[in-house]
Amino acid sequence: MKVTETFLKGCFVIEPTVFGDKRGRFFEVFNKKIFEEKTGLNIEFVQDNQSISQRGVLRGLHLQKGEHAQAKLVRVIQGKVLDVIVDVRKNSPTYGKHFSIELSEENNKQLFIPRGFLHGFSTLEDNTIFSYKCDNYYNKKAEDGVIYNDKALNIDWRLEKNEILISEKDKILTTFLEFRK
C-alpha cells in the first residue's frame, strides 16, 4: 500500500497493492495497522456510507461541525468521480486551499480527509458507486457547507454548467466568505 500526503497536511492519497490474475483482482481496502504506520494517525471508523449517482451529480461541499466533525476515507467502487476537499481549519497555513483527485474503479485510489475539511465530489460516469468510512456518526443538526460554485474557491468540477445535477439543499449553501465568519 502506497500512502502519500498531499500539500494539505493530514490528507493522504492511498493506493492499494492490487493482485490480479485470470480470475480477476484482489486488494486490501483498509488495514488499520498499515494506515497507522504510514500516517501516524489512529482512526476508529464507526460508520460506512455509500451513494450511487449518474454522471453530472455534484454532492457538496459539506462537513459536520463541532463535536460531530468527521474524518473520512473515501473511494469509488464503480465509475469515476472528481473528489474535492477544502481546508477550513482556522489556523492552518493552507486555510481556504483545495485539493482535487480523480477516484475511480480503475485506479483504486482512496483519499483520507481529516476533520476540518469541506468535502464534495462530481460524478464523471453513470452508475458511479461512491463509498466512505467516517470516524464519527452523522448528525443532521451539525450539517454545514459552502456552495459548490463559490467564486473565491474557483473549483473546476470537470462538468459543464448545464449538466450539473445538485440537490435543493446544496443550491442554497452559503458562500465561503460567509462561512468564514
UniProtKB/TrEMBL annotation:
Indicate the enzyme's highest-level EC class. Answer: isomerase
Among CDD domains, the record links this protein to: cupin_RmlC
Instruction: Give one Pfam family, short name only.
Output: dTDP_sugar_isom
Superkingdom of origin: Bacteria
- A GO molecular-function annotation: dTDP-4-dehydrorhamnose 3,5-epimerase activity
- Please write the reaction equations for the catalytic activity of this protein: dTDP-4-dehydro-6-deoxy-alpha-D-glucose = dTDP-4-dehydro-beta-L-rhamnose
Q: What does this protein do?
A: Catalyzes the epimerization of the C3' and C5'positions of dTDP-6-deoxy-D-xylo-4-hexulose, forming dTDP-6-deoxy-L-lyxo-4-hexulose.
**Record keyword Phosphoprotein present:** no
Q: What is its EC number?
A: 5.1.3.13
Q: So, what pathway does this thing act in? A: Carbohydrate biosynthesis; dTDP-L-rhamnose biosynthesis
Oligomeric and partner information: Homodimer.
What gene, per UniProt, encodes this protein? rfbC
Give the protein's recorded name.
dTDP-4-dehydrorhamnose 3,5-epimerase
Give the family per the record: Belongs to the dTDP-4-dehydrorhamnose 3,5-epimerase family.
Q: Which UniProt keywords apply?
A: Isomerase
Q: Which InterPro entries match?
A: RmlC-like (IPR000888), RmlC-like_jellyroll (IPR014710), RmlC_Cupin_sf (IPR011051)
